[in-house]
Give the backbone structure.
Amino acid sequence: MRTGYRTHTCGALRAADQGQRVALCGWVHSLRDQGGVLFVDLRDRYGLTQVTFRGDADGPLLAQAQRLRPEWVVRVEGTVVPRPPEARNPRLPTGDIEVGAGALEVLSEARTPPFPIDERAEVGAEVRLRHRYLDLRRPGLTRTLEARARVVGMIRRGLEAQGFLEFETPTLIRSTPEGARDYLVPSRVHPRTCYALPQSPQLFKQLLMVGGQDRYYQVARCYRDEDLRADRQPEFTQVDVEASFVTEADVLGILEPVVADLLEAFRGHRPALPLRRLSYAEALERYGSDKPDLRNPLELVELGPAAGALGLGLFDAALAAGGRVKGLCVPGGARLARKEIDALEQEARALGAGGLAWVRRGPDGLAGPLARHLGTAPGGRLAAAAGLGEGDLLLVLAGPAGLVFRVLGALRQRLGRRLGLVDEAADAPLWVTGFPLVLFNAEEGRFEAAHHPFTAPSAADLPVLLQHHREPGSVPAERLAAMTAQAYDFVLNGEEAAGGSIRIHRQDVQEAVFHLLGLDPVQVEQRFGWFVEALRYGTPPHGGFAIGLDRLVMCLLGGAGIQDVIAFPKTLAATDLMCRAPAEVDARQLADLHMAWLPEAPRPAPGAGAPAAFADDGGPHAAP
């Protein structure tokens, strides 16, 4: 790391460097004045080195050094000397040496920072984001961003070893209003028109396959104007991948060795390949989630037949309406206090359930709202079906399938952590496959793409789709809703870290999907005509995926939040506290864009608006 200013970084020197004349640059981390000797810890991105200024050797130099303050940027020349044995610091890689200063140059003075540049100091999130450039100096965040860079490098090398080329795709594109809202960019040159920032490079990477480029990848910046969550940002990075002449199994095989390398490097163990496959339907039935954390041993159990024999109105009504009765049996859960069970009931209600039935089996027998019903023969069969044993707690929920899965899936996660059932040091990578092709939007009375409109249906359901296109009304809506897609998600420890699909490469199939989604030929031409035209010129079978880089790094580092793996993140309100964006713009800028602000309209309720169905491969699927 030799430059015109320095010979070494602050993390480079070791005992073998004793006697060398060196020059170091960095920030003053701390000072300790011990009367005639001043110890200065000098810090840069690479580490920390102790520099010693001694008055008996050079009084003026010591006096100059005593003016230093934390976070001043300095250059020091000196000689590497061993520390006395009692002064060595085994916690530092440079802890066996120090630099005896011979010259000091102040490169930049600094104001007192608003918080200590020390990862042990607790600092509020707002203060950290407002002064992110100072937060970046803290060693913990530096290590996280170094790890992120290593992840990107390993992914690049892993893909290039498989013949992938890196391409760039446009970031000023045409808006395709399907799903999450686009960020719009008004055009000055073409009045009353807008570009959109990409939610993903989806169509362009497919066009690269039409163009014969065979294997593409890109570390792409993407944008979504949608309501935010703790694990989502309005602008994010995904590693986008596409390949031609591939099946679903081929695509999974492309990502698996890359994932194995990453888990070995960052988590200390290499998973067996191929990774476990779990169908979407099985994931919901067993875990209540399409991104299950399989480190949690708890599973949902089917109680419909047994519950239907109890004669309880709640269960009977749910089953008669086509709903489900599912249970979650928690080994050792009987030890939970009543207030903890009440908290589970409150969480179930917050998620939309009307209530939560439960029973526990302790040394004194059964207790809880279901206890008196389990004393009968049908009740005994329900307890047996649930696997309710001594010391266990059984939670039972009845209602529409989507609600039952969502609520019990969330309670499964909470109880797994509450009872210490989840091994945080372990990893459970898997693929979830066979997602629905479409979902029915009851409010609008139409089908929507569950993934995006360019996802290929499964081979078994392709004839059903084409029949509906040829003979509208000939296929029952229930059968259309049951169609599955050649879509897949990579799930790591309960987080969706990547997702993708095999794409539609036939023009007639693409037309059939657009028809199913309620798009007439005029709408298709207006929104996607430029893309559909390309399908007419010989399109190879192709598919791919996108890795949600921010979320993957978060999973690999374990415990890191999404904001800590991004150099300059936004808040949950999609604001940048550091540069104060978004902000008003000058009236002249608006005039150049042929724009003027309308009177402010009432804001929609949180969560209102278009669903995030047409997004990137790594994005969320709609709830079942």
Notes: The chain has three domains: 15-108, 142-278+429-592, 296-418.
